[in-house]
Structures are given as structure tokens and as C-alpha cells.
Amino acid sequence: RAVIGVDLGGTKIATGMLDQDGGLLARSQKATAGLQSSKEVISTIVDTIEEVRGQHEIAGVGVASPGMVDSKNGVILNGVNLPDWDGISLQSELEKRLGISVRLINDANAAAWGEYVYGAGRGSQSMVYVTLSTGIGSGLVLDGRLFLGTSSFAGELGHTVIDPGGALCGCGQRGCWETYASGTAIARIANEAIAESAAASQMTTLAAAEGVPVSAKHVFQAAGMGDELANATLEQVIHYTGLGLANIIHSFNPDCIVIGGGVSRAGAAFFEPLLKKTEELVMEPYRGTCKIKPAELKDDVGIIGAAALFVDHQ
Ligand code: ADP
Ligand code: ZN
């Protein structure tokens, strides 16, 4: 039987049907702009599911949502930018409409499960997934099982504090890992360095040529060109990112950490120094126990991971 995954994004609903081996059989996508009520949103989700389903028999529908999700009760708590959406019992609403089992999880947890079953985490026993994006999201697969925790909120590793006197985070705390190692943080650290420096930087030139502010991408580009300020920024960023990864390794002793998100697109210029730094920062007995790998699944990771909740996996 086939399985279906739905990825609820800020701007679109993306839905796909997979076979038991993770092959994408059909895909449908609809914009959420213009939807006026939760009823309309739910109808739109159902439309995408009906579109991809065709005549297939479906084992279940997994739904990945950003923000806080109560997976046990199938309720969205907050975090999705949709009309009258917070507190919606999405699982039971969809089950009523579809007559198929539905499971709801947070998008980072979905991505973690997707990478574990079909991506860079294949064959791993304990894997931690980290997405370095606008913020930092993460998900835990421990001893072969997706670990959700008491309230299904497990894995908010972006909000572990690495500097109590640090920058204010969107969550209200100071010095969260996310304020040091996300794409947004990299841009902030770079811009602070530029403001404080008397010397010109390639980062400024590259950004100006595109007519945009200096972003994480420019830090990596300029560092590759030998720009001193960019390299100093990168060194700082690698240190902070490695600190977070060392905390993860000490906390969960995973055999593998999979890193996705926009920042991971920097490739070897990011991964090579990061692996080295992390090995330096972990305690001796942990050295060599954990592989750090780039994510393999691309834009459809949310769809794939949510659908994979219904795949018979061993
Ligand atoms: P979102 O947070 O919306 O899911 P992404 O996962 O694409 O988006 O992450 C966006 C972040 O990734 C931005 O901070 C951006 O500057 C950064 N980014 C995008 N491409 C690159 C790149 N090639 N190298 C480094 N950082 C990048
Ligand atoms: Zn925070």
C-alpha cells in the first residue's frame, strides 16, 4: 500500500504519495495565500490528497507542520501562519474527511525520520537531524525510534543555551544555539564584524553586486576568496556550530548527525572545518564515534518524512 505525506509550509501545502521504498509516485502543491479560514485550509489539504491518491489504497497520511505540535492528540498548537489555525484538531478533522489514519508531527521531526529511513541516516541506530536554516530545527531518532518526548516537543536543540549573556532569541531566552549558528546568526555576526572593521570586505562587495544585505552565503563565498574578515567570521561560526554538535554528541551518543537546511548548501567549505572542530570539542572517549553528514533529501524531505511514518520500517 502507498503512503501520503503533507508538508504544511508558510506559503504552500505540498503533498506527495510514496511507495513502500520511498519512491515519489505523485505530487501536488497549492499556495496558502488567499485561504480565509481553517475550513478552507483543511479542504485544500484534502484536495491535494485526493489529487495524488488516485485509485491507490493508502496506509496512512502523515502531516508535517512547523512550530509546536501535539502529536499525541493530533493538534496544532502554534507556529503556522494560517487563518484561525492554532489549536486546530487537524488529525481528527482529516480522518473524518478521508477515512484514512492520519498522524501529525513537527516538520523537523518529520525531516529527521525521512533522513533516517530514506536519506543520509540509512543504516544508523541513533541519529540526530539538525537543520541550519533561518533558525535551527532538529529531530531525534534514538535506538531506531523517532523520539518525541512527553509532550511531543522533543528536539528543540536550537534553543539550548550556549551563552547565558548572549543575544536575545525569538523564544525569549538569551544565547540560544540558534542565535549563533543559524543562517540568520551567521549574517548577524558577519554584519557586526563589518561594522566594527576599518578594512573593506569582499562580503560587502558580493552582497552589493546582488543588491542584497550580506547573508550567510556571502560569508562562505568571500572566505573562499581569502577575505580575512569573512574567514574570521567563519571561524567563529564553525566554533559555535561545533559547540552545539558536541553538546548533541555528549547528550545522545548518536552514531550519526545529519545536517540539512540552507547553510549546509555551503558544502565542503562548511563540513570540513566543522568535522575537525567538533572532534576537537568532544571528550576523548566520544572521538570517532559520530559521523557528521550532509542531508540527502532535498525540498521534499517534509513530505517524505511524514509519509514514512506509515512505512513498515525495520
Ligand atoms: P528556511 O529557513 O526558510 O527553511 P533555508 O533552509 O533555505 O530556508 O535556510 C535559509 C538560510 O540559509 C539563510 O540564512 C541563507 O542565508 C542560508 N543559505 C542559503 N544558501 C546558502 C549557501 N549556499 N551557503 C550558506 N548559507 C546559505
Ligand atoms: Zn531560543
UniProtKB/TrEMBL annotation:
Signal peptide residue numbers: none
Source domain of life: Bacteria
One Pfam family matching this protein: ROK
Matches recorded under InterPro entries: ATPase_NBD (IPR043129), ROK (IPR000600), ROK_cs (IPR049874)
Similarity comment text for this entry: Belongs to the ROK (NagC/XylR) family.
Protein name: ROK family protein
Species, as recorded: Paenibacillus dendrobii
